[in-house]
Amino acid sequence: MSIAAEQARLFYEQVTLDRVVYTLMDDDKFLVFRVMDHDVVPFWSCRRQVSQIRQSQLAYTGFAIEELSLDEFFTDTLPLLTDSEMCVGINWSGARLTGYDITPEDVQRNLEALLNGDSSEP
Fold it and tell me: What is the pTM of this model?
C-alpha cells in the first residue's frame, strides 16, 4: 500500500471515530494549493499531524490550526468546497505535502459509508 493510500485509510478511520477534522487557516481563509488544474484544501484527521506539518513547514508557522466537527465539515465546509470546485487533500504528509486529493462529494460519501457500517468503502 502506498503512503498516500495508507494516509487516506487513516484519515477515514480516525475521522469516523473522533468526528473531527483539522486544517490550517490564515486570517479565516483556508490554506489552498494549486495541484495540476484544480485547487485543493488539505485536511488532517489528527491535531498532532497538522501541528507537525505547521512546525516543519516554515511557510505555515503563522497559520492557525482549525478544528472542525464532522457535522460542520459535512454541512458547511464540503458544500463550500464543492461550490468553489475545490478538492480535499487527505492527510497530506512529508516535506512536499503529498497525498490524495479527492472531490468533496467522494470524501463525504466515503465517510458516510463508514459511519453507516459499510466496510467496503472507501
Answer: 0.92
